[in-house]
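User: I've been trying to design a sequence by hand for this structure and keep getting stuck. Would you show me what you'd pick, starting by listing the structure so we're on the same page?

Assistant: Good idea, let's start from the same input. This is the structure you sent:
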């Protein structure tokens, strides 16, 4: 064999090995990310992994999990990856042995608590819940959670229900964990005429249209609404915000593990975190700039709450909330 022939053979072997390790095939994702945002995210991912065809099912976190649990019962879970707002669900699935540990996940630069210590799920962004208000309502600008139970807010508050929204489960669990707020705060909200709707989208619609003056909402929706011309502003309350990280996890039953790992890798990479900024989210990774005019992750005042604790109380949270505001 000549030197030229040897080099050609080695080059062909390298190309073959690279192709063998490249992610490919179909990746199935169950997610609570809105349809258009998910389609845009997939397009960005495919610039890095063009060989992966991503199919996804999208609904609210509760409906996504109900579908997945039904598939577990039938012995035929479909998704490779779960990508939802609610870390409490990830804790429950981890406890049930449904998540695949991914020890090699690229977590450098991510803050403590942003991912599971056993590396079964990983936060992808920071989504605080605060207050949106209608600037044309004639009502005063809120500064604290307490403003929503004041006489000015009588019959003027709307919020997402934890019966449908994963972010709302975290938010209610966080608020009720604060000694100065607790369930007493929600009881006062109910007495003040506050109402619940299915999700954050319904909150923005009601406030932007002037049906309600105030709403509890995830920040990016309020900022996106304002950018599109809605008469709304967003407030990070003085007591602090609750926070979801929209974690991603690979299921133990995943059929395309290589593509699933590639998807997780991209979400946690600098490029993936920068893309979160493009979509209007605050990235979790240190050194990645967030959206203009928004606080950095380190600047946010986050009310303390444990996803594990909230997960253990999620059924009670939903029942108590339903007793106050209906289903």
């Amino acid at each position: 064999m000549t030197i030229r022939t040897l080099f050609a053979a080695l080059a062909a072997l390298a190309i073959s090995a690279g192709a063998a390790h490249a992610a490919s095939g179909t990746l199935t994702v169950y997610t609570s990310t809105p349809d258009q945002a998910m389609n845009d995210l997939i397009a960005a991912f495919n610039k890095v992994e063009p060989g992966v065809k991503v199919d996804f099912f999208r609904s609210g976190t509760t409906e996504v999990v109900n579908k997945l649990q039904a598939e577990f019962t039938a012995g035929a879970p479909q998704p490779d990856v779960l990508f939802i707002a609610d870390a409490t669900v990830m804790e429950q699935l981890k406890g049930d042995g449904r998540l695949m540990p991914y020890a090699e996940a690229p977590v450098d630069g991510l803050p403590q608590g942003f991912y599971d210590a056993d590396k079964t799920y990983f936060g992808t962004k920071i989504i605080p819940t605060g207050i949106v208000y209608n600037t044309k309502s004639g009502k005063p600008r809120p500064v604290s959670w307490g403003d929503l139970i004041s006489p000015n807010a009588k019959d003027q508050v709307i919020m997402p229900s934890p019966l449908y929204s994963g972010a709302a489960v975290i938010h209610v669990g966080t608020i009720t964990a604060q000694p100065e707020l607790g369930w007493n705060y929600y009881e006062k909200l109910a007495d003040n005429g506050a109402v619940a709707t299915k999700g954050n989208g319904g909150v923005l619609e009601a406030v932007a249209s002037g049906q309600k003056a105030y709403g509890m909402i995830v920040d990016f929706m309020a900022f996106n609404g304002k950018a599109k011309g809605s008469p709304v502003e967003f407030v990070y309350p003085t007591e602090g915000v609750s926070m979801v990280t929209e974690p991603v996890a690979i299921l133990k039953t995943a059929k395309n593990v290589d593509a699933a790992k590639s998807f997780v890798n991209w979400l946690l990479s600098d490029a993936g975190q920068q893309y979160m900024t493009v979509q209007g989210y605050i990235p979790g990774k240190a050194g990645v700039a967030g959206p203009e005019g928004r606080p950095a992750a380190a600047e946010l005042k986050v009310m303390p709450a444990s996803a594990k604790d909230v997960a253990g109380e999620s059924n009670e949270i939903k029942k108590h909330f339903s007793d106050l505001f209906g289903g």
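That's my pick for every position. To get oriented when you compare it with your attempt: The two ends are 76 Å apart (CA to CA). The beta strands are 25-31, 52-58, 81-83, 127-134, 157-160, 195-197, 214-218, 232-235, 242-244, 248-250.
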